Every structure is written in structure tokens, then in C-alpha cells.
Amino acid sequence: MRKPKSQETRGKEAQPLTARVFSALADGEFHSGEQLAGELGVSRGAVWKAVESLRELGATLHAVPNRGYRLRSGGEALAAERITALLPATVRGHVRSIETAWMVDSTNSVLLARPNPPLGVCEVLLAEYQTAGRGRRGRTWLAPPGGSICLSLAWTFKEVPKDLGALGLATGVCGLRALRAQGLERAALKWPNDILVDGKKLGGILIELRAEADGPACVIIGMGLNVALGAPLLQKISDTGAAPTDLVTVGLTQPSRNALAAALVGEVIAGLLAFEKEALRPFVEEWRAADALRGRPIDVHTPEGIVPGLARGIDLHGALVLETPHGVRRFISGEVTVRAVE
Fold first, then answer.
1. Coil, strand, or helix at residue 329?
2. N- to C-terminal Cα separation, the chain
3. Strands 95-104 and 122-130
4. Residue 23, in any domain of the structure
5. Is residue 229 part of a domain?
6. Which entry of 136, 200, 210, 312 is annotated as an active-site residue?
7. Is 339 a known active-site residue?
8. pLDDT-based confidence at 139, cuts 50/70/90?
9. Could you tell me which of 74, 80, 106, 11 has the C-alpha nearest to residue 265?
10. Which of 155, 201, 260, 303 has the fewest beta carbons under 10 Å from its own?
11. pLDDT tens-place string over residues 40-95
12. CA 60 to CA 169: how far, in whole Å?
């Protein structure tokens, strides 16, 4: 009797050829066009077209005569079954579904278009590639297939929780906990929603809310984490004035994206349960210990203008505390740049 195909196998077979070629190359080894064609049941010409499509999406591939194709970043393709199996047992009951998609416009946008998940359980969506990945304030989030974690999680609160604006800070602490579990100890946090390593941006958080008056509130927590962007894309992002980095650059060799995704989901769920009860309080000391801005001269960019001062950490409500020549001010939103010391 033929063994039934797993949900993961059936899902791969339903994907476009570009996605299937990506999955076959995700081990970082060389695969000949003939080998790929045979495995996938297509022509070598179709394989070549899929490889070119991957390059157009930003993937870095090597093509060597008599050896074949190799995906430079290497690393496993995202797989919902593997992520689910790696979740901590303490949170599995709070997961309604985990999905992985080859390509979406934005994982946040997809979940925002769906009904709220029931209370106490979340829905998780990850994508290999986003055509319109979004950062804060509408910025574009760039990531090639296999180069990052693009993850969104939908969670419904019975009512809008106290200090909801601080949820991004709590999520940042959850991200640090997940990274430490994978062996990265020196990550830091930049108010309001950035994860840094050595002063460069490793990841970001985007939280969107859908709420009813005096009713339930659904939050979509989007997390983007750079895993292996490759030198060309890192340079392209740097040319825009940003300072990016990724896990491979900071020393994690062959990081498991599925293990990292499971760690992120597990920590965020545990964080949401704690945030429902005590808001930012369980996270504030960890956030302060990882604060990349504390004591530094910064400019806070607001709709009313730029406010200079010295960063003095955060308060229990998640507000940035700024020491200015005219006294201490607190900001619950805004953009921050660090001023060079003259």
C-alpha cells in the first residue's frame, strides 16, 4: 500500500514551480538542471526559467557548468508542520493554525482581511516572499526568498488592553528571548520597534489593530527578521541610508528558520498571555537592559517637529523618556535618530 502523502508534501506539490525549485535548492548544495527536472517532473528549460525567477526576486544563486545550481544562502524552506512540532508544549494549545505561503503581498495584510481568531488562540502566517512587505510608517521591507523570517500572528483580546501602545515593546523583548534561545546574546532594542545587533537593524515589528467599540480587539503582530540577505541586498538597503545586518553576518552559521520561527511564535504567545494580565510590567526590566538608546543624544521626530534631547529609557507605559533643555518629556509615538557627538 502506498504511504499517504503528508500535508507538507501535498502543499509543496501545489506550489508554483519557482517555489518547488527554491525548496529543492534550499539545502545550499549544487543540483544539476537535469536532476531538478527529473525530481520535479518538468523540462530543464522550465527549471532554468524558475531559477531566473528566483534571481528576479532577489535570491543569490550560483550556476556552475557540470555542477548545476546552488542557492548561496542555503537553509531550510519554511514548513508549517516542522514549526508546529518545534513549538513549546506550553503554548501549543494556544495555536489555532500555522500556515506557510510561497508569496503574499504582506502577511499582516492577509491576516487583517480575515475574521478575528477566537479568544485564547492565534493564527500564524509566514511567507517566503512578500511583494509588498511593510515596515513602520509604510516603509518597504525587503527580503529575498529564504533570506528572512516574515511572520504575522493574529490574536484577539476580549477588550482593548491597558497600554496597548506598549505591546510592540513587549514583543521586542519576546524577540530577544527567541534569539537568545538560538545562541545570539548581544541583540539590543531601539524604541519603539527595532531589533539591533552592533547598532545595525536585524529586525522590526509592525503591530496593527482592528477593534470594535466596547468589544474585542484583534492585533496583528508582524515580525521581520533578517536571516541571510546576501551582500548585494545588504548594500542596496545601506544605500537608502539604513544600516542593516542579518543573522549570518553576526555569526550564526546555518540558522534554522523553522526553529527560529517556532521560538518567536512561542515567546510571543507567552508574552501576549502575560501582557493581558500585567501590560508592560513583566517586560520592562529586560527592555531597559537591552535599550540601545539610553543615555545617548537623540532627535525624536514628531508631526509637530523634531525634539532633541538625551534618551532616558522608557516608563511603565512604554513611553520614551527624553531629557530636554526645557524639562523631561515623554513620547508614546515617533521616530528616533541618534545624533552624532561633536
1. strand
2. 75
3. parallel
4. yes
5. yes
6. 136
7. yes
8. low
9. 80
10. 303
11. 999 999 999 999 999 888 888 888 998 999 987 666 899 999 999 999 999 999 99
12. 34
Amino acid at 324: T
Q: Is 288 annotated in the active site?
A: no
Q: Does the annotation mark 136 as catalytic?
A: yes
Partners of 3 in the β-ladder: none
CA atoms within 13 A on the CB side of 54: 32
Q: What grid cell was written down for 50?
A: 524558475
How far apart are the C-alpha atoms of 244 and 340, rounded to whole Å? 19
**Whole-prediction pTM:** 0.89
d(CA 203, CA 141): 10
Q: What's at 85, amino acid-wise? A: A
pLDDT at 11 over 50: no
Number of domains within the chain? 3
| Burial category of 256 from C-beta neighbours within 10 Å (exposed 0-12, middle 13-18, buried 19 and up) | middle
- Rounded CA gap, 233 and 144, in Å? 8
SS3 state at 222: strand
Full domain range(s) for residue 334: 294-338
> Pairing between strand 320-324 and 187-190?
unpaired
Same structural domain, 112 and 206: yes
